Amino acid sequence: MMMMMMIMMMMMMIMMMIMMMMVVVVVVMLMLLLLLLLLLLLLMMMMMMMMMMMMMMMMMMMMMIMMMMMMMMMMMMMMTFLCLIVML
Fold first, then answer.
1. CA distances from 13 to 4, 18, 27, 48 (A)
2. Which own/partner pairs from 78-81 qualify as long-range (CB within 8 Å, at least 24 positions apart)?
3. What is the pLDDT of residues 7-59, one digit of tens each?
4. Is 88 helix (H, G, I), strand (E, B) or coil?
5. What is the pLDDT of residue 66?
6. Running DSSP on this structure, what letter comes out for residue 9?
7. pLDDT of residue 57
8. d(CA 68, CA 62)
9. What is the predicted pLDDT for the residue at 37?
10. Given pLDDT bands bounded at 50, 70 and 90, which one contains residue 71?
11. What sign does the CA torsion over 25, 26, 29, 35 have?
12. C-alpha–C-alpha distance, residues 49 and 47, integer Å
């Protein structure tokens, strides 16, 4: 009887150990998954930031070109005016 009890106890201990190991492995896996998700999120954020920066740069360039065009137009207008005045 005592032997049986001992064997049963040993079995229980082994089972408990296995269960604990499984739990630990699962927890580790979950942590890894979380880390991966975080990394992905970070990457996405970085990409978004880069895209935003690119968009901003493009907008700035467009604005600059528009300004240049406006300046050119103004210069042309001024020149025409001057020409007109001189003609007169």
1. 14, 9, 21, 52
2. none
3. 888 889 999 998 899 999 999 999 999 999 999 998 888 888 888 888 888 88
4. coil
5. 87
6. H
7. 85
8. 10
9. 93
10. confident
11. negative
12. 5
Q: Hey, what are 52's tokens?
A: 């935003």
Token couple for 6: 């001992």
Question: How far is it, in rounded angstroms, from Cα 15 to Cα 32?
Answer: 26
What is the 3-state composition of the chain as percent helix, strand, coil, each rounded to the nearest 5? 100, 0, 0
Burial of 66 (0-12, 13-18, 19+ CB in 10 A): exposed
Structure tokens of 13? 């201990």
Helices (H) and strands (E) in the chain, counts: 1, 0
What is the token pair recorded at 72? 């050119």
